[in-house]
Amino acid sequence: MFDKVLIANRGEIALRIHRACKEMGIQTVAIHSTADSDAMHVRLADEAVCIGPPAPKDSYLNMAAILSAANITGADAVHPGVGFLAENADFAEMVEEHGHVFIGPTPEHIRIMGDKIAAKEKAREIGIPVVPGSDGGIETDAEAIAVAKEVGFPLIVKAAAGGGGRGMKVAESMDRLPEALSLCRSEAKAAFGDDAVYLERYLGHPRHIEVQILADGQGNCIHLGERDCSLQRRHQKVVEEAPSPALNEEERNRIGKTVTDALAKMNYRSAGTVEFLYEDGEFFFIEMNTRLQVEHPISEMICGIDLVREQIRVATGAALPITQEDIKFNGHAIECRITAEDPDTFAPSPGRITDYHAPGGLGVRVDSHLYSGYSIPPYYDSLVSKLIVHGNTRNECLMRLRRALEEYVIGGIKTTIPLHERIIIEQAFINGDYDIHWLERWMGLK
Ligand code: ADP
C-alpha cells in the first residue's frame, strides 16, 4: 500500500480524496494556489505545497510545479481528482515517468476516450451501441450533407475535443447545416485548440443515463449500476439520482453487462463512467469519462462501496477484491449540486461564508469544503457542496432531501439551494418523469 498520496486538485473533491486516504492509513499531500491557502483540504492534509498563483494555468494545471511537489514530498502516488488534469494523458504519463503511480487509467486509454471521435470508434469496436452519425470526423460541407441525407434531421455537430457541455450545435435542417458546422468548428478551435467535429442524430427526448464501472487492468470489470443525470442546464448536470426511475432490472443488467464485457476486453483500469442517451428503450453511447465523476457518491450510497478507496487499491496493482455478484443495490440516492450562484440568474456569487450549518441525520451526506469564515475565491468552478441523500425507497429519499435542504444554511453568499428546493417538489420530478430538456423548459429557458 502507498504511504503518501499527493492530491492534485482542490475544493470538495480534494477533501473527498483526503478522507479516503486517511481511512486507509495513507498520508496526504495537498497542493494549492496562493488563493487557496486557507482551503479545507490544505488545512487537513498532512503536508501542503503552494504551487503557484490563482490562475489555474499557473497552478492546478501547472504540471511541472505539481510534479516538483510530488518529488519534494516523496509522494508514492498522485490522485488527479475531477477536472483540471484528471483526463490529461500527458500528465498521467509524466507522473509515471517521474516514478510515481498515477491513480487512474493508462495514458493510452485516457487519450482514446478524450477524443470523442476515437472514443466512438473504440466503443463500436468493443460492442457498445453508439448514436447514429458520421463515421469519424467531418472535413467538408459535402461530407456533412452526405451524412445528413443518410441519418436525417435534426442533427448535432459536436467537437471531438469538447467537454463541460461546450462545443455542440444543433442543425434543424439542411440549410442550417453549414452554419452549425462553421460555428462549432470556430468555437472548438477557440475553446479546445482543436477544430475537429463530427455529426450525430439529435435525439428529441432522451434521458442521460451513465454506467459506473470499476476495473483492475487485469481483465476484471464490475459495474455499480447506473445514474440518471437528465436534469441539466446548458448540458451540465444539476441533480442526479441512482438508480434511474426509467430503467427496469432487465435493462439495468443488460447495459451493465454490455459495458463491463467491453471494458474488460479493453483491459481498462480504475474507475470510469460510460455515458449514454436513452430513448424509447434504446441506449446510445455518447462518451466515456476516464476518471471519478462529481456524482460518484450516489452510486457509493446504493452499493456501499468507496470508489476512491477502490481506485487507490487497484492502482497498487491489486486485483479487484469483489465480483459482480457481490454488488447488492440498496435503496435510492439523490445528489444536488449546490453552486455559489444566484438561483435565478446564475450570476456567480463568490465571497465570505458568514454562517455555515450542514444538515445531518440518517442517510444524509455532505461533500463540501465550506466552513464558517471561509472565503470562496472567484477563480474556480462554482461548485461548493454536494448534498447526497439516501433512502430505502425513492419516496423516502425525496422526503429526506426536502428536510435536508431546509436545514442547510450557507450564509453570506447566494447559492442554488432555493432552486433545488423548487425542483424537487415539482410533480414531474416526483414522478421521475423527465428527460434532458425538462429542467430548461421548466425554468423557461427553452
Ligand atoms: P460533454 O463532454 O460536454 O459533457 P456529452 O457528449 O457528454 O458532452 O453531452 C452532454 C449533453 O449534451 C448530454 O447529456 C445531452 O444532454 C446533450 N447531447 C449530447 N449528444 C446529444 C445527442 N446526440 N442528442 C441529444 N442531446 C445530446
From TrEMBL:
Matching InterPro entries: ACC_Biotin_Carboxylase, Acetyl_CoA_COase_biotin_COase, ATP-grasp, BC-like_N, Biotin_carboxylation_dom, Biotin_COase_C, CPAse_ATP-bd, PreATP-grasp_dom_sf
EC number: 6.3.4.14
Residue intervals of the Biotin carboxylation domain: 1-444
Keywords: ATP-binding, Biotin, Fatty acid biosynthesis, Fatty acid metabolism, Ligase, Lipid biosynthesis, Lipid metabolism, Magnesium, Metal-binding, Nucleotide-binding
Gene3D superfamilies the UniProt entry points to: ATP-grasp fold, B domain
Top-level class of the enzyme under EC nomenclature: ligase
Superkingdom of source: Bacteria
Iron in keyword set: no
Listed GO biological process terms: fatty acid biosynthetic process; malonyl-CoA biosynthetic process
Domain (ATP-grasp): residue spans on this chain: 120-316
MF term (GO), any: metal ion binding
Function per UniProt: This protein is a component of the acetyl coenzyme A carboxylase complex; first, biotin carboxylase catalyzes the carboxylation of the carrier protein and then the transcarboxylase transfers the carboxyl group to form malonyl-CoA.
Complex and partners: Acetyl-CoA carboxylase is a heterohexamer of biotin carboxyl carrier protein, biotin carboxylase and the two subunits of carboxyl transferase in a 2:2 complex.
Record-given protein name: Biotin carboxylase
